[in-house]
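Data follows
____________
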Amino acid sequence: MKRTGRSIGIALFAIGIAALIVVFALAAVAFARVPAQIEDPNLVAQRGVGGVLAAAAVKALFLLVMTYAASLLASKGIELSHAAGDEDEGGQ
């Protein structure tokens, strides 16, 4: 039972870390375009600088939520892994 709990915990931790990497990659892609969008006169004329910055703020909020979820998943994986190890030590 200990091995199963530990394996699931490590798998959850790995999934959480992978999700964090994906979130950081998405952030790099999403925010690399913002300076170019601000400097684009056609886009600024359509939406204004405030519209471009508001879109960036909304992206930032979504990325914040995804980061929180991924870190929560990783921490629960570590917690499960440690709980499985503590359960084994207490039984001996």
Remarks:
- The two ends are 14 Å apart (CA to CA).
- The chain is about 95% helix and 0% strand.
